Amino acid sequence: MAAWLESPDPLVVDLRKVTAADLAPLLEEETAAWRTALDWDFEPSADLVRRFVGMQALNGFALLDGTRTIGYSYYIREEKKGLIGDLYVQAPDRTPERENALMEATVEALWRSPGVHRVEAQLPMLESPLARKPPFASWFRSYPRRFLEAPAAQAFALAEREPEGIAISPWTEAKQDDSARLVAAAYRGHVDSEINDQYRSPSGARRFLSNIVQYPGCGTFFAPASYAASDAKGALCGISLTSLVAWDTGHITQICVAPSQRGKSVGYELLRRSMLALVAHGCRRVGLTVTSTNKGAIRLYQQMGFADRRDFAAYVWDSW
Ligand SMILES: CC(C)(COP(=O)(O)OP(=O)(O)OC[C@H]1O[C@@H](n2cnc3c(N)ncnc32)[C@H](O)[C@@H]1OP(=O)(O)O)[C@@H](O)C(=O)NCCC(=O)NCCS
Q1: pLDDT value at position 7?
Q2: Does the reported pTM lie above 0.85?
Q3: Going along the chain, which residue ranges are E strands?
Q4: Residue range 44-59: average pLDDT?
Q5: What is the rounded average pLDDT of the residues 273-292?
Q6: Using a 6 Å CB cutoff, which residues line ligand 1?
Q7: Which of 119, 159, 182, 320 is a good FRET partner for 54, with 20 to 30 A between their CA atoms?
Q8: 187 pLDDT more than 90
Q9: Centroid of ligand 1 to alpha carbon of 266 (angstroms)
């Protein structure tokens, strides 16, 4: 067909130009996509997007094809960092180029915000996440990540291990400050602190922890399956935090062990207890995400029955 007869490229516009009703079919499709791909109930996140778009209070962009809204993205600023909260183009219209158009507008808008030098994103529904050339390539790095999953009932097949001198107890919010210090120590020099700069300091880790306890991005925090490990002196040396991402699907939002206590089965036992509590709650499966180069953690998860469900990537743009 002659070029002049082809329909023009979809238009990227400010998210405030569309209504919650315009976005509704897109969010409905995205909710179904998360369910199919990951057994993840995206409805609480979709609901937040609808509400904030309804109030014209969400920063981001919409992709318009004529009168149809075929994609959207939104972003959040956290001090000197920008986060792409979501970016989705609906299935029949989805191409890496169209996703990139939204991505470029989003990263550019964040960079224009005073003081923002870094942008992070983890977007599991993105088309070919590993094989794409993203915008602003010279500031860009990507980290392959894996979504792993185990049947929750697998917990019954795992033998109990009792790490010597270690006590395991329920995690409570009173342990949040100690947990933040533990996260910062556990991820010092770790690839995951290149992906998420909140892991680099106790104050950043504190924000990370309050986000996973309070907001639905990683599912609904589930205290009954979250555990803490303490050493002989009572100091916190490991945590396994969980959420529910659907009524029958648990998720490990954080697991880490203090460097001095590694290799003693503390991680194994924390994860086993979390899985047991999730299956007791009625979960059929447990998921988690791990960076592909984190071979030690992957070995632990595989040993405990986790297998690959989906590949995705973490993206970082850093202009420093
Ligand atoms: C991953 C982590 C939680 C494991 O905790 P841990 O208490 O050291 O692990 P365990 O002692 O329970 O390990 C159990 C099994 O996992 C495997 N494993 C754990 N860490 C390993 C490593 N670094 N290298 C190779 N295998 C490892 C071993 O197969 C081990 O089996 P074995 O006891 O039969 O030898 C811990 O290393 C950690 O906190 N790492 C930094 C943070 C992190 O990467 N968290 C996971 C993010 S997804």
Answers
A1: 57
A2: yes
A3: 11-14, 59-65, 68-78, 81-89, 118-122, 140-151, 167-170, 220-221, 227-230, 236-246, 249-257, 285-291, 307-318
A4: 96
A5: 98
A6: 186-187, 190, 255-257, 262-268, 290, 294, 296-297, 299-300, 303
A7: 119
A8: yes
A9: 8
Place of tokens 């922890």: 209
- Give helix 176-186 / helix 202-214 axis angle, nearest 10°: 120
Q: Which fold has domain 3-135?
A: Aminopeptidase (3.40.630)
As to burial, measured by CB atoms within 10 angstroms (0-12 exposed, 13-18 middle, 19+ buried), residue 205 is buried
Distance 240 CA to ligand 1 centre (A): 13
Which residue ranges make up each domain of the chain? 3-135, 148-314
Q: Which CATH class is domain 148-314?
A: alpha beta
Give the Cα separation of 293 and 269 in Å (integer).
23
pLDDT of residue 8: 66
Q: What digits encode the pLDDT tens for the residues 71-95?
A: 999 999 988 899 999 999 999 899 9
CA angle 119, 113, 30 (to 5 degrees): 50
Q: How remote is the CA of residue 262 from the centroid of ligand 1, in Å? A: 7
